[in-house]
Amino acid sequence: MKYHDLSANVVKLDYPTLLRTAKIAVGATKNEMERRLSAIQSSLLYTPKEKSMQLIDVESLVSSAQAFTIALETMHALEAMESREEIEWANLPKVRINH
Fold first, then answer.
1. What value does the mean pLDDT of the chain take?
2. For the chain, how are helix, strand and coil distributed in percent, rounded to 5?
3. What 3-state class would DSSP assign to 33?
4. pLDDT confidence of residue 72
5. Would you say the pTM of this structure is higher than 0.90?
6. Which among 75, 73, 62, 65 has a CA at the least distance from the CA of 24?
7. Residue 73 main-chain phi, psi, to 5 deg
8. Domain boundaries defined on the chain
9. Does residue 53 have a pLDDT over 80?
10. pLDDT tens for residues 9-49?
11. What's the burial of 29, exposed, middle or buried (CB within 10 Å: 0-12/13-18/19+)?
């Protein structure tokens, strides 16, 4: 099934698909963050590592949390689109937008 149309020099984006994609990203990044946190807790309790390895684990958790934040903000923005009078797109390549 085709959700977005990229034919004939036109890009048509499907709103429900964009929202679904954001929700999938929220779930995936949340799971990754929880997995990393659990690994850190286990390593601290059961298999002490060198501090440098623990720092790498924490940096990975921070990276996952940043990805989760972006996904969550995107999901909320897409959900809020339905109740807004005006929608602005930021940082798009120089293209003409038809509403």
1. 85
2. 65, 0, 35
3. helix
4. 97
5. no
6. 75
7. -60, -40
8. 15-83
9. no
10. 777 888 999 999 999 999 999 999 999 998 888 877 776 66
11. buried
Amino acid letter for position 42: S
Q: Render pLDDT for 66-95 as a digit per residue (tens, 0 to 9).
A: 999 999 999 999 999 989 888 888 887 776
Cα angle 89, 3, 86 (rounded to 5 degrees) comes to 25
Token duo for residue 96 = 């003409």
Write out the DSSP string of 43-82: HHHTS---HHHHHHHHHHHHHHHHHHHHHHHHHHHHHHGG
Paired tokens of 2: 């085709």
Task: Tell me which residue of 20, 12, 82, 10 sits closest to 2, measured CA to CA.
Answer: 12
What is the amino acid identity at position 3? Y
